[in-house]
Amino acid sequence: MRILVTGGLGYIGSHTVVELLANDYDVSIVDNLYNSNIHVLDRIEKLTSKSATFYQVDILDKEALEKVFQKEHFDAVIHFAGYKAVGESVAIPLTYYQNNIAGSLNLYELMHKYGVEKIVFSSSATVYGDDFAVPFKEEYGLGTTTNPYGTTKKFNEIILSDLAKAKQIGSAILLRYFNPIGAHESGLLGEVPNGIPNNLVPYIARVASGKLDKLRVFGNDYDTIDGTGVRDYIHVVDLAKAHVLALDYSFKHEGVEVFNIGTGKGYSVLEVLHAYERACQKKLPYEIVARRPGDIASCFADCSKAQALLGFKAQYDIDKMCEDSYRFTVMNPDGIDK
Ligand code: NAD
Ligand code: UFG
C-alpha cells in the first residue's frame, strides 16, 4: 500500500516515514522544503535501508500537486504539511490561513478527484483552547482557539468532518498531538528550529549546548505542582508510531474519529529542565520571568480512547525524551546539514 505523506521531511513527518517504511508501507513524500531539507531524505534511507519517493512540491501549487496524484495512486494520505508557530500566526494570519487551509483544500479536492479515501490529519491539543478542565477528552469537542494557528487546525477538523459526512472522504482520523519532543535514538533525525526556539525543549537544548545562556521560565505562579506550566510531552517516535496505528484503523473504519495523542502525564517546566540536566549531566541555568501571554497552566490528555481503539500507548518517558533530544543536539550542532 502506498501512502502520500505531506510535510514528510519535517520533524514529525520524517519520524513517521521511518515507521511507515519499517511497517512495509510504500511512501511518497510531498514537501516544499520550507522548514526541512533534502538531507533528511538521505537519513531516512540510511536508517531504514529503504527509499521513499520524493516530490519537491508546494501544496499551494495545485497543478504541481495534481501531477503527483496523476503519477501514482495512493491508498491514504498523512497530512503534516503546514506552518506551526503560534506567535508568527498572530503576526501574519493570512499566510497561516493560506498555507494551512488553502493548501489543505487543494489536497482534499485532489484526494476526492483521484479517489483517495483515507486521511490522517495532524491536529493539536490547541483546539481545546482554555475552555475545558484537564485531562482533555476528545468528547469535549472544539474549544475557543486563541491564535490563527489553532484556528487553522480547528477549521481543518471541521472541513474533514464535513467531507466525511458528505462521503467525499471515506475516513478521516484527526490526531490531536500534545507536546512532541525528543528525537530518533540514532541521532539522525530530530527537530531543527529556525532562529531562537519558541518551544521549551528546543530552547533547553540550546542552553545545554551552550548556544543560549539560560532558560527563561515563563511564570512560577500557576496552580501547578511547582507553579510552572504543565504539559503532556510525548516522544516523537511514540507519536510517529501512533500514525501507523491510526492508518491501520482508517483502513478498517469509515467516518471521522478524533484521538488525543499524548502520554496522559503532565510535567512542569522545572521538571523537564531537571530531566534535561540528568540527560546532559550538567546544571542548566534558568531565571523565572513573567508569564507568556496566552499560556494556560496545565495541558494534558486523557489517552484512554487511543489506547482502547488504536491500541496506542506511549512507551518512552521524559528521561528518554531528553536523552534523545540531547544526543541529536550534540550530533548535529548545525542542524541536519549533510
Ligand atoms: P515541521 O515544520 O517540522 O514540518 C512541516 C513540514 O511541512 C516541513 O518539512 C515543511 O517544509 C513542510 N511544508 C510546510 N508548508 C508546506 C507546503 N505549503 N507545501 C509542502 N510542504 C510544506 O513541523 P512538525 O513539527 O513536523 O509538524 C507537523 C504537523 O504537525 C504540522 O501540521 C503541525 O502544525 C502539527 N503539529 C505539530 C506540533 C508540534 O509541536 N511540533 C504540535 C501539534 C501539531
Ligand atoms: N516555556 C518556558 N520558557 C520557554 C518556552 C516555554 O517557560 O522558553 C514554558 C511555557 O510557558 C509552557 C511550557 O514551557 O508552560 C511549554 O511551552 P511550549 O512553547 O514548548 O509548548 P506549548 O504547550 O505552549 O505549545 C505547544 C505547541 C503548539 C501547540 C500546543 C498544544 O508549540 O503548537 O503545544 O499542542 F498548539
Record the SSE blueprint.
Layout: E1 2-6, H1 11-22, E2 26-31, H2 39-48, E3 53-56, H3 62-71, E4 76-79, H4 86-91, H5 93-113, E5 118-124, H6 148-165, E6 171-177, E7 179-181, H7 200-208, E8 215-218, E9 230-231, E10 233-235, H8 236-252, E11 255-261, E12 267-268, H9 269-280, E13 286-289, E14 298-299, H10 304-310, H11 318-331
Parallel strand pairs: 1-2, 1-4, 2-3, 4-5, 5-6, 6-11, 7-10, 8-13, 9-14
Antiparallel strand pairs: 9-12
Helix pairs in contact: 1-2, 1-8, 3-5, 5-6, 7-9, 7-11, 9-11
Residues 7, 9-13, 30-36, 58-60, 80-82, 84, 99, 103, 122, 124, 177, 180 line the site of nicotinamide-adenine-dinucleotide (NAD).
Describe what this molecule looks like in 3D.
There is one protein chain. By secondary structure, the chain is α/β, with parallel strands linked by helices. It is built from 11 helices and 14 strands. It has helices at residues 11-22, 39-48, 62-71, 86-91, 93-113, 148-165, 200-208, 236-252, 269-280, 304-310, 318-331, and strands at residues 2-6, 26-31, 53-56, 76-79, 118-124, 171-177, 179-181, 215-218, 230-231, 233-235, 255-261, 267-268, 286-289, 298-299. The protein has a 7-stranded parallel β-sheet with strand order 3-2-1-4-5-6-11, with helices on both faces. Strands 12-9-14 form a 3-stranded mixed β-sheet. Strands 7-10 form a two-stranded parallel ribbon. Helix 7 (200-208) crosses helix 11. The longest helix has 21 residues, at 93-113. The radius of gyration is 19 Å and the shape is globular. The mean pLDDT is 97. The site of uridine-5'-diphosphate-4-deoxy-4-fluoro-alpha-D-galactose has 21 residues, from helix 7 and strand 8. Uridine-5'-diphosphate-4-deoxy-4-fluoro-alpha-D-galactose binds at residues 84, 86, 124-126, 177-179, 198-200, 203, 216-218, 229, 231, 269, 292, 295, 299.
